Amino acid sequence: MERERPQAGRDAQADLSDLVEAVARTRDRAAFAHLFEHYAPRIKAYFLRLTVSGAEADELVQEAMLAVWRRAETYDRRQSSVATWIFTIARNKRIDALRRNRRPDLDLNAPGLVPEPEPGAFQQLEARETAARLKAAVAGLPDEQRELLDLAFFQDISHRDIARSRGLPLGTVKSRLRLALARLRQAVAEGEDGS
Amino acid sequence: MGMAQHTDDLGEGSTGGDAGGGVASGHHLPEAVLLDYAAGAISGPTALLVASHLAFCARCRGDAASLDAVGGTLLAEIEPAAVAPALLHSVLARIDEMPVTAAPSPQNLAPADADLPAPLRRALGRPLGRLAWKPFLPGLRQVRVLADKGDVARLMLIRPGAAFPRHTHGGLELTLVLRGGYSDEIGRFRAGDVSVADGSVRHRPKADPGEDCLCLLVSEAPLRLTGWIGRWFNPVIPF
Asked: Which of A66, A76, B6, B43 is deepest in the core (most CB within 10 A)?
């Protein structure tokens, strides 16, 4: 797995947010085309990792990008990075495809019964700041933790199945994942202290 | 809290304690469950319970959003794979065909159930009063909501002060209190709280007096009743 990737920088993230907002405000097709260019191949790679076949992956990419167009108004740059927003769309599209009618429609924007969500550990900074920190922290994870994190997100298997497929005790999988998440959380928290 | 023996196998979470003040919530979802939810590697029934708890719990919503952010980071870092060359055109063509409609209309949800989480009301599709409740044990009624991948989600309605027979679990069981509250050997649970139990937990939940207790239960495998009365009922638990 490729570990060190060129610094995309914060400006790139900011631009992507601008693009989504342009789609939301003015149905800007050029902005959408840029978004497509950037994210469609990544969404496809995500689906392929989840062992969706090539043709089906393209179809799902279409579905996901259509949802990006349709739901651009719901994007809030204070809440999440574009990558995170698109990740949740792609994830849900695939789940819909897999379990048609079997999974309840979990509308991301469903109103909660409690008024204001408290900012999560990763949300207290501006979302793109957080995205940059997370990215660095993920890159710095030990291989064994990074690999499990990848497995957790890029294969449709639960902890139990990861343990089985890796021949690892369930407890080991859990503790490695927990360590990985704790490191990510800490990296973001350190940013908040200004260190 | 003395809960460690129950949660060791499940990741962290479910800490806190008796809220005491009538407000949820001391009891949260284990991080492992939230991670599987964020990754999409979770059954429909469990997803329903998670989404329902998130409606009650700002803390877990924040944690879930954080895990989504990890997914977003991984997506941003993934090695891109070329899509079919004509795909953008085909998407734009579909956009042209798209009827100009407002966002999907909100479901007509019964006002009487406004205190229940929207994902649950959507999954039920009708008011609580019109569900096919079945008598289960004295003081208890239940209705099956959803089944997928071996997991089953049920609503359980417990009369004030009634107790569930002592039982243990064949697999992981998550309970979300929706109305009222109950107590067992693990602690006290109120609306919004989640209880996590597995084969190592044997308990006898008892509803608080004064109000029906409504819970959403998701079990991996059938409950196993352990008392003498429970053993007698074991073969007839509808599942």
From this structure: B43
Question: What is the bridge-based pairing of β-strands B213-219 and B173-179?
Answer: antiparallel
* Inter-chain CB proximity B31 and A181 less than 8 Å: yes
| Distance separating alpha carbons of residues B158 and A139, to the nearest angstrom | 50
Q: Please compute the mean of the pLDDT values over residues A124-150 and round it to a whole number.
A: 81
**What is the Cα–Cα distance from A99 to A96, expressed in whole angstroms?**
5
Query: A121-193: which CATH number, 1.10.10.10, 3.55.40.20, 3.30.565.10, 3.40.50.80?
Result: 1.10.10.10
State the fold for domain A8-102: Rna Polymerase Sigma Factor; Chain: A (1.10.1740)
CA distance B57 to chain A (A): 7
* Stretch A84-94: mean pLDDT: 91
Interface test with B, best of A49, A58, A60, A84 (most B CBs within 10 A): A84
CATH topology of domain B31-104+117-236: Jelly Rolls (2.60.120)
Contact B165, B224 (CB under 8 A): no
pTM here?
Answer: 0.74
Q: Which amino acid is at B136?
A: F
Arithmetic mean of pLDDT, A44-56: 85
Select from A135, A152, A159 the Cβ nearest to the Cβ of B73: A135
Chain B: residue whose CA lies nearest to A35: B88
Q: Do B65 and A48 touch (CB under 8 A)?
A: no
Regarding an ipTM greater than 0.85, the answer is no
At residue A97, the pLDDT reads 75
Q: How many CB atoms lie within 10 A of CB A70?
A: 16
Window B:39-78, CB contacts with A under 8 Å: 39-42, 44, 47-48, 51, 54-59, 61-78
